[in-house]
Amino acid sequence: MEASRFEAPTEVEGAVALLAAEEGARVLAGGTDLLVQMRLRRGVPDSPPPPSVIVDVKRIPRLMRTQLDAGGLTLGAAVPAAEIFENQTIKNRWPGLAEATDLIGSTQVQGRATWCGNLCNASPAADSVPAMIACGTTVVIAGPSGEREVPVEDFATGPGKTILERGELVVEFKVPSPASHAADAYLRLIPRTEMDIAVVGAAVQLELDEDGTVQKANVILGAVAPTAIRVAAADTALVGSRLEDDAVNAAAAAASAAANPIDDKRGTITYRKKIAGVLTRRAAHIAYERARAR
Amino acid sequence: MSAAADTTRGQGERKFKQIGSRPIRHDGLDKVTGRARFGADYTLPGMIHGVFVRSPYAHARILSIDTSAAEKVPGVRAVITAEDFPDIAMNWIPTGPTGIDFGANQRTVLAREKALYHGHAFAAVAATSDEIAREAGKLIKVEWEVLEPVLSIEAALAPGAPILHEGQETQGAGDKPEGDSNITNQVLFEGGNLDAGFSEADVIVEGHFETPMVHQGYIEPHACLANCREDGTSEIWASTQGHFNVKSEVALITGMDPNSIKVTPTEIGGGFGGKIPVYLEPAAIVLSRKSGRPVKMTMTRDEVFRATGPTSGSRMWARIGAKADGTFVACETRLEFEAGAFRGSPVGAACMTVFTPYEIPNFKILGIDIVLNKPRVAAYRAPGAPIAAFAAEQLIDELAGKLDRDPIDLRLQNAIEEGGRAKYGPRFEAIGFKQTLQAAKNHPHYKAKIGANQGRGVAAGFWFNAGMQSSATVSVNDDGSAVVRTGNPDIGGSRASMALMAAEELGIDVTRVRPLVGDTDSVGYCDVTGGSRVTYATGMAVIEATRQVVDHLRARAATMWDIELDSVEWQDGNAVATNGDADKGSLSIEEIARQMRMTGGPVVASASVNPPAAGPAFGVHLCDLEVDPETGVTRILRYTVVQDAGKAIHPTYVEGQFQGGAAQGIGWALNEEYLWDAEGKVENSGFLDYRMPVASDLPMIDTQIVEVANPLHPYGVRGVGETPIVPPLATVANAMHAATGVRFRTLPMSPPRVLDAIESQSS
Amino acid sequence: MAKIRVETTINGEEAEFLCAGHQTLLEVLRDDLGLTGTKEGCTTGDCGACSVVLDGRLVPACLVLAPEAEGRTVQTVEGIAQGSTLSAVQQKFLEHGALQCGICTPGFVVAAEKLIEKNPDPTEEEARYFLAGNLCRCTGYDKIIRAVLDAAAVMREGTA
Known about the structure:
The complex is a heterotrimer. By secondary structure, chain A is of the alpha+beta class. Chain A has helices at 12-21, 34-41, 81-86, 88-93, 95-102, 107-110, 115-120, 128-134, 232-238, 245-258, 269-292, and strands at 5-7, 25-28, 53-56, 66-69, 72-76, 138-143, 146-151, 156-158, 161-162, 169-176, 182-189, 200-208, 214-222, 229-230. In chain A, the strands form four sheets. Chain A has a five-stranded antiparallel beta sheet with strand order 4-5-10-6-7. The longest helix of chain A is centred in the last third of the chain and has 24 residues, at 269-292. The mean pLDDT of chain A is 96. Chain B is built from 22 helices and 29 strands. Chain B is globular and about 85 Å long. Chain B is of the alpha+beta class. In chain B, the strands form seven sheets. Chain B has a seven-stranded mixed beta sheet. Chain C is α+β, with helices and mostly antiparallel strands. Chain C contains five helices and five strands, in the order E-E-H-E-E-E-H-H-H-H. Chain C has a five-stranded mixed beta sheet with strand order 2-1-5-3-4, with helices on both faces. Chain C is globular. Chains in contact: A-B, A-C, B-C.
């Protein structure tokens, strides 16, 4: 019987050493993907072996820390979603990102799930990822040769695939504070009201000038391509507008056009492309109202 | 003894003291504290773990199985295949609307000649841990002849389709295919003159309908613990809807002496029909016999979805004709039901219920049972009826639209009532369909305003309910309290109902009655907890046994007073002396009980019943919903269940049945479905993608209990558990039509399908 | 492979157990510690039947590895009643008939306690969303939600 060893290092260096030492080492943050995968593979022929060592990173103080200042948020990689959503400052400053975080799984799963897991699992449908990208979030990665910081946008390279190399560990996230008249929103479509994986997700961040004209826009879609995607044409359509129907409809059309989804058990290509437009329009309006109120 | 003589007619305006109250259920404390023991909670010293090994193919012949490598794995104690069971041929034995086939039941536990669905078990391994057993299972070598899977009704009926069961010819009525067929059976009910009937019609509506396979979705996976002892006797603890059934099925499937098997029911975490079949127990007991160790078997959620339940997917065509004044004149259906791997879809019951709530003189109801390479279906709450009602009740709604009639009024005009004949033969005794329709029409919900993108639907349904065999034993303790023991697993509060009925007869408070569920050795035979029969039939046995106890208590009082038995009446828990002996006064049940040892010993009585029929229950549902026209997402805004309960013994649990059935039906209507890949593998074998309603999907579900006494039960009880799932599919579909103008004839009404339909209509 | 020795606190009492590195807290609670009130419905975090509280957070015990419990506190359904007194949530579940088969009940009780602790006056909608991860197939949730809202009201009166 193959069994996994369990390690709970208290420093980043210790975790990196464990991860670098063995091909079969796996990081345990919230475990909401890792444990499910391990469980569902039991007894299934030809499935990958269980991890040789499970590295629980929740005893590393840096990975459990929340630091807020005027410049933004530095969030430990293993802070559970519930703690993020309970933080009133995060909710006020990045309401879309907070909402996306709150949508990951049930209350129980929220007690475990992390941004780091949501990102590293590299599901195209991860709720927090489009919202993180829309807010300009970067991720700090520690590895055997030191640390590097990369935009979340560049992290996933395909379903289940990331830029992480052997021995590397996501340590923390950095979210810059929005400009004075900027705000974000995230919407997803699911068949039920809870407990589903996003069929489509749309994050929009808008930065306005004093008159309410859009200066900058970030439109990011989830679940419609191998990774979360930026819809540059939608950004362009919104910039310079005050969210008049023409501009929003153009952004929605751009989102539908940019969506490149697959048919699967959670949705069809046609449906996902349509919904990408609908959610982009709705999220843009929410982000705009929030930005206007600031 | 039969209770029939005393219990064939209702008791009219009897004033109840206990019945209709809402006591805390006796088993509730253990369930809110976590102490109650369900199937997976039992252990024995030396216990090992059994798991099934399952087919990776939906359709494949088993040429050989080599278990030797698995047997050599350290920790493995036994490996079995179908060869460890006696070879029982498949043979269908009719039993009313359905039937039984022990050969098929055995092959459901372990495949013999063929694997007939993806996940069909073909071997079982017992080892010192679940993980070792699963790993060892991977080493079992099977030589498969992979066959083309049959994955849809269309494919099953196609000329030249692969045949699941060679030598199986179509049985039953109607025009049948020649030679081997995947159609196992046809059911036909005909009456009047169909052509003449339709020629009288001023309006005819018809439609094709499709519903997918869906699962019962109980939260507790199947589990059992089995121990075969050195002398060949066995004990089984099982999460089941019927432990007497487990006993007889295990004996037949394994060839063991039924007399050697004792089955104890654990608490059961939901069943809805899906825990009537036996899947684990025959394998567990043979693994135990082979290993000499107690064997526990539990399924994973994935296994539950792949290899237990579900209920049929269907393809249906139906039409109905009415005169301009609204009178229904003719109806016709062709109901094609997926049975899964073996014969036995609920299409017979679907035929018995479709259009039966209405007087329609000319009819032809055809039902077809079709096997294909999907899991074998099991009973699911009013089996077949919700599917049939999805077609029938939508057509009636359409008819109401065409005739410009209120949909409840149109149903009232045609509703069947006492003396009316069911399309399957018998005449109805007193039933409450018209009263239920009227109550729905008068309900504030039916008159409330609704807004844009919203719609209201109404639909009706009924279930005939079951009687069957039940036993009960009632004993009096020396403090005047009582114990009532039956043999029906309590799946939703039936202990409280049994206690209420015994308390009513004894004239004592319900808290003074302790209800127990006995094992197969400690109580008389009881058929399964199913068919909405426990409160009705087992309740009848309880009432009868308690009445015998009361007679004994009267006799003891007569002895204590030294007067004639005829001079003792029983009133509110007291023996009261009457006639010339009124001066003796009264003796309480406590006083009589304290003297039992002096007056003849313990007071115990048992009764058994076998009512051939039950009282049908009719329900009418109202649903308001809102559709997002840009996404197709539907939200249920308001839902009301009105149903005839005959007499509500414990109204809280009657309401609970109404609400739970409605919620399951709403899930079926909106999002639940099995998804299959091209090879017949289930793609959504977990709660993440098999989308049952969650708390935030539903509003409060209003209930209104109608009470039209069932003349077959001493208190007027009708079974209430199944009817609530019959109307919701059509109710929601009718509300969707009201909201969008589109008729949804295919389930589920999931967002992509709804959006597509809305857009197709507007273009 | 040598098992891992874990020292933890369960329902206010010190506990220790041996486990393998990949074993879940759910498995250890049920199979090794005899705390079978925590139920297994799916093992994938989708049903809520195994809800427990780990260091104050509501979590599914099937998605926690047993060795993670080292030095932490775990509360299960067995620790909800205080001595011989049921909690308000447990009492209201009984009074409202908020259970039929009862398999989901322990998970609902544990989750509802946490809801009311965090939000003493939840709206119906808040209760429904908080409890959306607890599946019930029997009741349609109506009586469960009523019991939870009623328990919250009773607890507000009790602390007022």
